[in-house]
Amino acid sequence: MGLLQLLKGQFLCHLLIFYVFLVSGLLVNLLQLCTLPLWALNRQLARRINCRLGYCISSQMVALLEWWSGTECTLYTDPESYPRYGKENAIVILNHNFEIDFLCGWTFCERFGVLGTSKVMAKKELAYVPLIGWMWYFQEIVFCKRKWEEDRRTVAKSLQNLRDYPENFWFLLFCEGTRFTEKKHKISMEVAESKGLPKLKHHLLPRTKGFCVTVQNLRGTVTAVYDSTLNFRNKETPTLRGVLSGKKYHADLYVRRIPLDSVPEDEAECAAWLHKLYQEKDTFQEGYTQTGRFPGPVVNLPRQPWALLNWLFWAVLVLGPLILLLLQLLQTGSTLTVLCSLAVCIAVSGAVHWMIGQTEINRASSYGNKQAPLNNN
Ligand SMILES: CCCCC/C=C\C/C=C\CCCCCCCC(=O)SCCNC(=O)CCNC(=O)[C@H](O)C(C)(C)COP(=O)(O)OP(=O)(O)OC[C@H]1O[C@@H](n2cnc3c(N)ncnc32)[C@H](O)[C@@H]1OP(=O)(O)O
Ligand SMILES: CCCCCCCCCCCCCCCCCC(=O)OC[C@@H](O)COP(=O)(O)O
User: Fold this and answer.
1) For residue 232, which of 62, 93, 97, 58 has the smallest C-alpha distance?
2) Where are the alpha helices (DSSP H) in the chain?
3) How far is CA 150 from each of CA 145, 163, 294, rounded to the nearest angstrom?
4) How many other β-carbons are positioned within 10 Å of the β-carbon of residue 134?
5) Using one digit for the tens of pLDDT, what is the confidence trace for 309-344?
6) SUPFAM superfamilies, alphabetically (predicted)?
7) Rounded to the nearest 10 degrees, what angle do helices 306-332 and 335-357 cross at?
8) Cα 131-147-354 angle, rounded to 5 deg
9) 167: alpha, beta or left, given left = phi > 0 and alpha = psi -120 to 50?
10) How far is the C-alpha of 292 from the C-alpha of 217, rounded, in Å?
11) Which of 42, 187, 337, 345 has a beta carbon 3.0–4.6 Å from 333's, enabling a disulfide?
């Protein structure tokens, strides 16, 4: 094991990385708060500023994946569609099997220049995650409670807000609604059976309402659906803890561009269209498990330096004062101040632990663990 690799596994390094993330994130959240009056005066300018501020936070996690862990992300896609990525508004559909799938999604956003504007339909609970959840509020992320009676109005309203968004954005939908577990898979296949739908091997049965409401509300704003299927080589099961410890993973992503015009307008037809799409996705995953690759050619998409430069900027800004403080503490600090500093370190490491916990599948919600009652409206 090289010295660098040894260093990447050290708790002190993780603490420093998290310190930069935490302090810079809080500063960015504060700046975002300061833009509140601007929303009333010049909404479009406020949105553009918030995209860039949000980028300062999310790109730190991308830098962690690309530069710290050195994870490789390979894109399989049709070279004719490729030039349009990042230059149009799109709905992205992604399978939800991995703890770092959102991070791989962000990496692709970064490479196509839409990281600051990336959007998602996220469960409401994530709005309360410090830094990321607070940042999302200013980035106009669409939150849902996964209770259709309540979501149908609020989700449509949030989607309508995006109709005059000033920059190109990708809107991510995990139509399965929750992360894949064997138990959730078994139950959702019972639902599939009761609806006369073919069984899926690698996906949960997609929830169609969020997709249909998104298409209805963003038609005319979004031009395509990017059907994206993610997997990892050699049956890797990547984790955020692994990434933080410098473990290198190999992600493969297959993207098909589907013009939005070909998605039916009628709700029942739209739902059937989505079910068919997931059956196709399932065959791609099956092919991947058999051959280790997706159909279609590989497009070379090198990592960009911006995420790393952003991290270095914030690291210089917030680590300098910390080092000065620590030196002063060592010279003049009483036992009490040293103990207080230790307590702060313990609190910070507790915060990392809790935030990483949000990404862990074994701490996933119970959503999808039992059949929701059949809904006819
Ligand atoms: C490639 C590049 C990538 C680019 C990345 C771009 C952007 C990145 C940006 C950010 C990255 C950060 C990512 C953060 C991740 C956070 C993600 C989440 O939080 S996922 C969870 C939240 N999102 C969703 O749930 C979306 C999908 N859900 C829906 O669409 C739902 O319909 C809903 C709108 C949320 C409503 O939920 P509800 O529970 O009320 O669902 P339904 O009404 O749909 O449920 C009833 C329906 O489902 C059938 N049913 C019952 N039980 C099950 C079951 N166990 N499994 C499947 N289906 C079930 C039931 O019969 C009803 O069927 P029907 O609709 O036909 O009546
Ligand atoms: C440089 C950065 C260093 C940072 C170190 C640690 C930072 C930790 C940051 C935590 C970020 C939290 C973002 C949460 C995104 C989680 C996405 C996710 O996967 O949500 C799950 C939902 O889709 C479904 O929920 P379930 O029903 O499966 O339950």
Assistant:
1) 97
2) 3-8, 11-34, 36-41, 43-63, 101-111, 132-138, 148-161, 182-194, 209-218, 240-244, 267-291, 306-332, 335-357
3) 7, 22, 38
4) 19
5) 999 999 999 998 888 888 888 787 778 777 888 888
6) Glycerol-3-phosphate (1)-acyltransferase
7) 150
8) 30
9) beta
10) 37
11) 337
Distance of CA 176 from the midpoint of ligand 1 (Å): 5
The phi and psi torsions of 301 (rounded to 5 degrees) equal -135, 85
Consecutive H or E run containing 119: strand 119-123
SS3 343: helix
> Nearest Cα to 374, choosing from 191, 225, 179, 120?
191
Ligand 2 atom 25: the closest Cα is on which residue? 178
Taking the centre of ligand 1 as the mean of its atom positions, its distance from the CA of residue 44, in whole angstroms, is 30
- For atom 2 of ligand 2, the residue with the nearest CA is 61
Query: Domains along the chain?
Result: 25-305 (3.40.1130), 308-355 (no CATH)
pLDDT tens figures, 280-317 = 999 999 999 999 999 989 998 999 999 999 999 999 99
Single-letter residue type at 110: E
Question: What is the per-residue pLDDT across 91-100, written as a single tens digit (0 to 9) for each?
Answer: 999 999 999 9
Task: Kindly state the greatest CA–CA separation across the chain.
Answer: 74
Measured in whole angstroms, the distance separating CA 125 from the mean position of its chain's CA atoms is 14
Q: Spell out which residues line ligand 2, taking CB within 6 angstroms.
A: 17-18, 21, 60-61, 64, 102, 123, 126, 129, 132, 174, 178-179, 244, 352, 355-356, 358-359, 364-365, 367
User: pTM higher than 0.80 for the full model?
Assistant: yes
The CA–CA distances, whole Å, from 264 to 215, 272, 274 equal: 9, 9, 10
